[in-house]
Write a structure and sequence with these properties.
- The chain is built from no helices and 9 strands.
- It has a 5-stranded antiparallel β-sheet with strand order 1-6-7-8-9, with no helix packed on it. Strands 4-3-2-5 form a 4-stranded antiparallel β-sheet, with no helix packed on it.
- The structure holds zinc ion.
- Zinc ion (ZN) binds next to loops.
């Protein structure tokens, strides 16, 4: 089954073709980034001449409505919707830090982490409640 991604604001498709398309900006640079629809595949296509260094935080927005895709969970993550069925979506959170490989697919059944750097976000709670710690 193909992975279909949508903007959480306007519900436009973010992958009309083979890639997920998002708008990125960093300092004065703006452009479109192409990402693999396959979760955990970190191949990407950046605009020619786009200058980013590892560890820099990049802003991601919807190419259709311009809505900020920053996750409500963490400002270093972005969030898009992944269709799982009729009117049913998983929330896909991905790192907006250049070079950082961390992706989380948030389903009703739980959070599924991907990427070598996912452990950096171990303390996050994707369900909106404080994580309970043992007393
Ligand atoms: Zn949108």
């Amino acid at each position: 089954m193909a992975n279909d991604y949508f903007c959480p604001h306007c519900r436009s498709s973010l992958n009309p073709g083979a890639h997920v398309v998002m708008r990125i900006s960093h300092r004065r640079q703006r452009g479109l980034i192409l990402l693999s629809p396959q979760v955990g595949n970190y191949r990407r296509v950046l605009p020619e001449g786009f200058d980013l260094e590892s560890g820099e935080l990049v802003d991601f927005s919807c190419p259709v409505c311009g809505g900020d895709l920053t996750s409500p969970v963490d400002r270093k993550l972005g969030e898009v919707l992944l269709r799982r069925g009729v009117d049913e979506y998983a929330r896909v959170n991905f790192s907006k830090v250049f070079g950082e490989r961390a992706t989380f697919v948030v389903e009703t059944s739980g959070v599924h982490p991907y990427g070598a750097h996912a452990a950096r976000y171990d303390d996050l709670n994707f369900f909106g409640e404080g994580r309970s710690k043992s007393p």
